[in-house]
Design goal:
The chain is mostly helical. Helix content is 51%, strand content 8%.
Length: 261
Amino acid sequence: TLQEQGLSSYTIRTTYLILKTALTHAVKWELITKNPMENMSAPKIQKTPRGTWTFGQVNEFLNATKNRHPHYHMAFLLAIYTGMRKAEILGLQWKHVDFKNKRISVEQTQLNLTGKGYEFDGVKSHAAKRSISIDDFLIQELRKHKKRQMETKLQLGPEFTDLDLVISTHKGTPMNQRSVSKDFYIVRDQLGLPKIRFHDLRHTHATLLLQLGENVKVISERLGHSSVNITLEVYAHAMPDMQKSAADNFSSALNLNRNIK
């Protein structure tokens, strides 16, 4: 079975839907008389816990990557501070960074074409095409990063390929997605931090915001989810702690006001 081959429940469900649709069309075109999957139930998606880091672990990681490859460090900062996806980060151009108003516009993603290089494409949904507010610290780091990049461009001259990318190789060309993840894993393991994936930096961003009591709708917009319900479903694991915090805060407020005469 597909499950025995190690495929995820999401991949198995997607395969089921594609195959069932293809067979439905085959019946419509009279290539077969009956769809053998007509009465077959769709496989359920098995939800697995999403690994995240604490504030302390995030700071430990970022401090360790400061003096490594500057483009990797900047990619890590963007993932942690904005919750952007890796393909969105690697597709980010300087024209999408509004330094004055402190916002990043997510307009395109990097497509990794195996053996054929890279292409860039617009984001796939209206929700994914979004504007993310960023703080003064990230603005400062982006300015320093851009200055370093411009210095490198002047040094290399015609050898530098200017694609206006925020995250690129030393010569300005698109960064390999696997290389970013590889450097992430190297530092993670050197520090002995919990074994999360690069993509889990996005989940860390959302989970930490939830723990701080940020509005779920705001978090949903930052992540580019099509609805708040998706955010609530994906991050339900963080809700029990929020429930306890809400109960404690409510009780504290009542006790405080009870003592006021």
